[in-house]
């Protein structure tokens, strides 16, 4: 039984529930903005497992966005990977090869926060720095609704998977999300 009811509203009607880069991206993407809803949540319940249990959202409806640092020589490239909460991103194989890197790993928390302008545990694919690849698992792209971070820990976004797949820099990859 959920501990709290989720009240969703159009995201741009509640800019205080969005990180600044997320609000700016939604304002700059007028076709996307009407598809995105936001709901305030308890920031202590932002982590996926706690969020799903508290708010009655199924893990297969929830998507995680992780920032990856891919290195080749002295050059580091950052990318976002979006996978369903029931899976984990195949960073060491698929992502590494796709990005043409010698080594790929989860970006350090401080780097992910600083570069994205978002809070750790709330990072979302909307509003990431220009030029970052946004790698979307095919299962996320096919989801009727995906729940992702809002850039802050105090809210979540609801939007169709097709909207995530249509973000600037998005590339849909089959097999990006692998079983945990």
From TrEMBL:
SUPFAM superfamilies: YbaK/ProRS associated domain. Residues 43-162 form the YbaK/aminoacyl-tRNA synthetase-associated domain. It comes from the Bacteria. Pfam families: tRNA_edit. This is YbaK/aminoacyl-tRNA synthetase-associated domain-containing protein. It comes from Catenulispora pinistramenti.
């Amino acid at each position: 039984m959920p501990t709290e009811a989720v009240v969703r509203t159009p995201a741009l009607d509640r800019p205080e529930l969005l990180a600044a880069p997320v609000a700016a991206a939604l304002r700059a993407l007028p076709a996307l903005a009407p598809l995105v809803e936001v709901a305030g949540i308890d920031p202590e319940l932002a982590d996926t497992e706690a969020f799903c249990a508290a708010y009655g959202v199924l893990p297969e409806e929830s998507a995680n966005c992780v920032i990856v640092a891919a290195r080749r020589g002295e050059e580091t490239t950052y990318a976002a990977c979006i996978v369903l909460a029931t899976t984990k991103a195949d960073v060491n194989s698929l992502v590494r090869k796709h990005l043409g890197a010698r080594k790929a790993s989860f970006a350090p928390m401080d780097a992910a926060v600083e570069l994205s302008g978002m809070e750790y545990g709330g990072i979302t694919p909307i509003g990431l720095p220009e030029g970052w690849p946004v790698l979307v698992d095919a299962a996320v792209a096919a989801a009727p609704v995906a729940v992702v971070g809002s850039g802050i820990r105090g809210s979540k976004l609801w939007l169709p998977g097709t909207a995530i797949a249509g973000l600037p820099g998005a590339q849909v990859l089959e097999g990006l999300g692998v079983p945990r």
